[in-house]
Amino acid sequence: MPQSWLVHVLEWLELRLYAGAGKIVTVGESYRERLLDRGVDPTLTSDVPNGVDLDSFSGIEPSSDFRARFGLGDRFVCAYIGTIGMAAGLDIVLRAGKLLDDAGRTDICFLLVGDGSNRSDI
Prior knowledge:
By secondary structure, the chain is an alpha/beta fold. The protein has helices spanning about 5-20, 30-35, 65-70, 90-100; strands at about 25, 45, 75-80, 110-115.
């Protein structure tokens, strides 16, 4: 965003909110580092990364009932499960789907699971 008096006021407010917080939880170390770069007290921050422990899911066979219910067949499934909002950037999935469609690739599908402010747009 271009710098303006409004941006400066909002940044000041943002830093005041951080300073008044009892704890700030980020979902990735890079987010935490950005806060620290902005002068946020490191003792206020914790990082709880998004992700999954892949070992918890090893050896689990895909559900044929689930695949049948959603018409997935034997296609490769790219899944996103989470908030469908502006920050998710899921418009890129639509562009990727168009590229795959243009290339005649019907062996890959996208499964978007969740709700949020951009769900109806996506």
